[in-house]
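Think of the structure tokens as a kind of shorthand, similar to the way a musician reads notation: each symbol stands for something richer, in this case the local conformation of the backbone. In the example below we present two proteins back to back. Begin with the first one, reading the sequence and then the tokens, and try to describe in your own words what changes along the chain.
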Amino acid sequence: MSGRGWAGVVVGAALAATAVAAVPAAASPQPRAAQQSHHAFSAAAASFVGATTVEQKVQRLEAATASLPRLAKAYNTPALWNQGLTGAGSTVATLVSYGDADIKAVIDAYDQRNGLPPADISVIAPSGPVPGCADPGVDTATCQSWGGETDLDVEMIHTMAPAAHIVIAATPVAETQGFTGLPEMMAAVDYMTKHRIADVISMSFGTAEDTFPSLDSVKSLDPAFERASKAGVTLVASSGDYGATNPVLTGPGTFPYRAASWPASDPNVTALGGTVLSLDANGNRTAPDVLWRPSGGGVSKTYARPSWQNSVKGSTGSKFRSFPDITMEGIYGTSESSPLFAGVLALAVQAKGGRLGQINPALYGKLGPKADKSGIVDVTSGDNSYGAVTGYTAGPGFDIVSGWGTLDASKFVPALVKALK
């Protein structure tokens, strides 16, 4: 990416996945003034560090998405495409810092090489002009990693919903841990709500509730989500890549205790955990999905249990919000799961003929309890212990760490649309 700043609109195409970086497990929190706060990138996103040309970025994208084409078959989306449900008429936004100013050229080249249809992409900078990765004051590695995250997110959405319009909402301040970068992201959410830009917003980022000045202070960010939900926008977010804990505010390491990730823990959001799929070369399952070990999930310390989770209070044993709500592939990190699910929701937007709004009440009230008819596929094995932090264990039916389980899109989409009527 050049050092010149940019803002405005780009039209192009893309496809994605994301991985988890190795982080020292269960290290003691560092003094907050000791080191600069950081963003915990997946290994796939971080692999874009040093990629400055279009060709280098395409190579990184191909390396990170080698098994991607099989996912469409694995989730039975072609059955919906054959019915004309390709996401046409829907708009999915991915909310990121910086974005990738080269995305048109990168995605066009990727699609041509891999025989993929072109994606319909717009890039907006609703919180102000976005700097280039070589601009003064910008951490180049962080910026380049966000560029990789952007390319990967778009690719996942496009994989599930090839005809959906994809908007990249890029902000000029890097989201790290705690509040840093989040006000700009919430301003972007408000902009998209006000201008009716997106039907679904996917968020492949997160920070521990414990990194904020107080556990309740994070609620100051909620109004943007509340306004979006009221306008019918569906919000989805990754549950985290550190099992039942999360990175500390500054320095290396994770909290030596359970720590919930925000925005996944927010009741306005549908949170996505990660699973590992066993597939043959054609995308057919050869064994049931199991939980991806570092998949984030647990119980909020900030948000009380929403009324729509009362039906599973016996499973959670808590008066607070548990997450995730559902899972999809997360071998590249749960930043893969969120855009994959956002793509599935794009198919539902087309099928419904309009926005879905908050889907959690339907997920807990109608879809989950009738899994055999609604395309919910139970995830019954695995746990998310991380280092010395004991996590939660998946089991039959709803559980804290996998939510209701994963999905068969060919059944889930029509069942969701019916439940929302």
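Once you have a description of the first chain, move to the second and do the same.
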Amino acid sequence: MQHAQRQILRLSGPDTRDFLQGLITNDIGGVDSGLVYAALLTPQGKYMADFFLRAEGDDILLDADAAQADMLVQRLSMYKLRADVTITPTLLHLHRGTDDAPADALPDPRHPALGWRAYRDTAQTDDATDWAALYVAHMIPSSGTELTPDTFILEMGFERLNGVDFRKGCYVGQEVTARMKHKTELRKGLARVAITGDATTGAAITAQGKVAGTLLTRAGDMALAYLRYDRATGEMDADGAKVTRID
């Protein structure tokens, strides 16, 4: 199915792989065997954008949220300096599904339940997959909701989602990310909650009168939330709705 809110960029030129390797959270070498999920961080280790990378001949296709595409082009161009890399938008469409994968598709590397992704010249109508429900069920963060400029990717489960490689060497924001991995215990992060009531995305979650987090993507009586773990115990409240942590 086509997903209209994605922009596919093409990176070409002999320095493309080395250029990306020094910037992104994952190992670009993974494109030789499938899709690579990765992020671009600030030097302070905070989230800027997440995307998928696919090899197409000597080029790399970059599948990003359309709302972040212009910023990504600008930021990558800033880092390019003298590297022989050309970044151009394409007219390709993202297709994805959870049925049997077609020949031109590759598995979504974040979780097997998310099926496949393919890039084609023509658009298709949507299939019947309830993507929001899948994202909530498997704790998959989305840009603009769970993933914001204040986000640290390890709090959003990027290691579990195969979005960061701790052996690849330096990249922008690597020092902060590695320190969070090896020297600290995460006290806040993404969780799945059960919810009864009418609270919506962005509602503050409280526990015993103290702020415990924020309600994020919701699908039926389940939702994702960003929680402070030491406070997110027992029954919580979000705009009068009952909230209980599951994962």
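Compare your description with these statements about the second chain. The chain has a mean pLDDT of 94.
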